[in-house]
Design a protein that fits this description.
Layout lengths: L1 H27 L15 H4 L14 E2 L5 E3 L5 E4 L5 E7 L4 E5 L4 E4 L2 E11 L5 E2 L6 E8 L5 E10 L4 H7 L9 E7 L12 E7 L7 E8 L3 E3 L1 H8 L19 E3 L1
Parallel strand pairs: 1-8, 2-15, 10-13, 10-14
Antiparallel strand pairs: 3-6, 4-5, 4-11, 5-7, 6-7, 7-9, 9-10, 12-13, 12-15
């Protein structure tokens, strides 16, 4: 009888230890940041200990047009997109739909060349202009040879269909955590960025590690895409994958027209 009790207690003890270890392992793997619950943007600084997420120069921001510094020249930004640049792959990383690029497209900003690395999307927009939230925002992320970052932020407004977005969405749906090779040409000159006015300011990445000293260029005029295109992107991303508005903290926003 004692042997049976001892065996039963041993089984219970092993099960308890196993359960505890499983919970611990699960908790360790659930600390990754997200857009909701205990790992939402409000908690990123607690999760990403060595990040800049509690810095003073964070993004996104609400751009109030009447408060910006205006300049008349746009010579500090030159778009160098070609029709022969290749998309290498598309990935659903659990936070957004991301298109990675092979070497080709670049911008020249303040006499420094930044190379296009990837494009991803947020729904609704992260940046606001005069408090207005747009249905979607596209980020074109560029990096120079020393690792400095420049991001073009394009706000999306619902209207007619966009051939560019039709091209992007032809590779969807894609399951979370998976990627597809593409290796197809894309011509981003159809965005006509040279014709748009823009705001610039010093900020950060809008996802952990929230790296600061990012050159932000946010275009005033939105791009146009259809309601169906917005919905298709939305259905392939986490709901509300945006970071909340960050304090300006006396930073200067410049308007280029």
């Amino acid at each position: 009888m004692n042997a049976k009790i001892t065996l039963l207690l041993s089984i219970v003890l092993i099960a308890t230890i196993s359960c505890t270890n499983s919970k611990k392992h699960l908790q360790e793997n659930q600390h990754h940041w997200s857009y909701s619950g205990e790992t939402s943007p409000e908690h990123w600084i607690e999760i990403e200990k060595n990040s800049d997420c509690n810095g003073k120069h964070q993004s996104p921001i609400n751009i109030i047009h009447k408060n910006v510094d205006s300049v008349k020249i746009k010579e500090d930004l030159k778009i160098q997109y070609t029709p022969t640049t290749l998309i290498s792959k598309v990935e659903n990383n659990g936070h957004s739909i991301q298109f990675d690029f092979e070497a080709g497209d670049s911008i020249n900003y303040n006499n420094e060349t930044y190379y296009l690395k990837q494009i991803h999307f947020h729904e609704p927009s992260e940046h606001k202009i005069n408090g207005i939230i747009y249905p979607i925002e596209m980020h074109l992320v560029h990096v120079n040879k020393t690792g400095q970052i420049a991001v073009l932020g394009l706000l999306g407004e619902e209207g007619d269909e966009s051939q560019l977005f039709e091209f992007f969405e032809s590779f969807l749906p894609i399951e979370e955590g998976t990627a597809k090779s593409i290796h197809q040409k894309i011509d981003l000159s159809s965005l006509f960025l040279e014709d748009k006015h823009y705001y610039s300011y010093n900020g950060s990445l809008t996802t952990p590690p929230c790296t600061e000293n990012v050159n932000w260029i946010v275009f005033k005029e939105p791009i146009i895409l259809s309601v169906e295109e917005v919905l298709k992107l939305r259905n392939n991303m986490p709901i509300n994958n945006y970071r909340n508005e960050q304090a300006l903290n006396n930073r200067i926003v410049t308007y280029h027209f």
